[in-house]
Design brief:
Helix content: 25-40%
CATH topology: Jelly Rolls
Distance between the termini: 50 Å
Shape: globular
Number of strands: 14
Order of helices and strands: EHHEHHEEHHEEEEEEHEEEEH
Radius of gyration: 19 Å
Structural class: alpha+beta
CATH architecture: Sandwich
Largest sheet: 8 strands, mixed
Strand content: 15-25%
CATH superfamily: B-lactam Antibiotic, Isopenicillin N Synthase, Chain
Strand order of the largest sheet: 1-2-10-7-12-5-4-3
Length: about 325
């Protein structure tokens, strides 16, 4: 761990004996109670996997607008494919009316459908087909390789979370053996004019699922989290590490013992690169469609009732997603 921003050594945790794992878990518990943000180092994801998907996304976003539109979502509210600039306002998920966010994205969902999945809404939403671009060459292979790496990393982090909550290490596995996770490549284009009043690169929001694995651009600025005192604090990229944050479903699971922290991507000043292009990847880990998310018994005091009613992972995610979509101009 560092004094400025907590950095967790995942490899050391996985190689440790039970008593050391328990102590490391207690450190993670403290972080998740305070901010819900930490960096994961020594994660074992090969550098060429990261470099491959990063270059593929850069090459895609460099394509002409009309070429990118060939992979666009086929209708408003479709979850996957290309989403052009200013078609989403994340702050709307919290009931805030803001101008659309200054970003474009490519989005992809699960790589396979579980045997026996028959829920119509699940098949039409989370298991909808990803609309792949024809260019650049190698895009699909780079994307799917990275997606699988993130699925594995998320599973390993959930084991850390189980230890941090003093649960059996495999406690969450029945909830995430067919996750409805999504991968999003984000491009914040170079800005040539000042933003509209209240317009950010990504409006203030919390994430919806269990956890998010963020790969920010090295040296970039703009990502901020709201501290417990209500002030916004910058989150620096940590070289060679992923930035992890807790999502709403994990907060519900823990009865708000852990924080699903409000965060945003602001426009730094021009002197700090605020007009420059910025790229990132976000893997949104989401429990199985039918996973029932209810307060863990260890996270509610004797005689007290949980803060939240149980919810199902998939329908909860779908409602949140639909609240953020901005209708395209006619």
């Amino acid at each position: 761990m560092t004094a400025q921003f907590p950095v967790f050594d995942l490899g050391a945790f996985e190689a440790a004996q039970a008593d050391t794992r328990a102590e490391l878990g207690r450190q993670v518990d403290r972080i998740c109670r305070e901010t819900g943000f930490l960096a994961i180092a020594n994660h074992g994801i090969p550098a060429d996997v990261v470099a491959g998907v990063w270059q593929a996304a850069t090459d895609f976003f460099d394509l002409p607008a009309e070429t990118k539109q060939g992979a666009k979502a086929p209708y408003e509210g479709y979850p996957y494919g290309y989403l052009g600039p200013e078609l989403e306002a994340l702050a709307k998920s919290r009931g805030m009316d803001t101008p659309p966010d200054l970003k474009e994205s490519f989005n992809g969902g699960p790589l396979s459908i579980p045997n026996g999945m028959a829920d119509r809404e699940a098949l039409e939403f989370c298991y909808a087909e990803t609309i792949w671009p024809d260019r650049p060459a190698g895009f699909i292979e780079a994307w799917t390789t990275y997606y699988r790496a993130m699925e594995d990393l998320a599973k390993r982090i959930m084991r850390v979370f189980a230890v941090a909550l003093e649960l059996p290490e495999n406690h969450f596995e029945p909830f995430i053996d067919a996750p409805i996770s999504a991968l999003r490549a984000l491009n914040y284009p170079r800005q040539t004019s000042a933003p509209k009043p209240g317009q950010l690169r990504a409006g203030a929001h919390t994430d919806y699922g269990s956890l998010t694995i963020l790969l920010p651009q090295e040296g970039s600025r703009g990502l901020e989290i709201m501290a417990p005192d209500g002030n916004w604090l910058p989150v620096p990229p940590v070289p060679g590490a992923f930035v992890i944050n807790i999502g709403d479903l994990m907060a519900r699971w823990t009865n708000d013992r852990w924080v699903s922290t409000l965060h945003r991507v602001v426009n730094p000043s021009p002197a700090d690169g605020g007009m420059d292009r910025r790229q990132s990847f976000a893997f949104f880990h989401q429990p199985n469609w039918h996973a029932r998310i209810e307060c863990l018994p260890s996270c509610v005091a004797a005689g007290e009732a949980p803060k939240y009613e149980p919810v199902l992972s998939g329908p909860y995610l779908m409602a949140k997603f639909r609240a953020t979509t901005v209708p395209a101009a006619p």
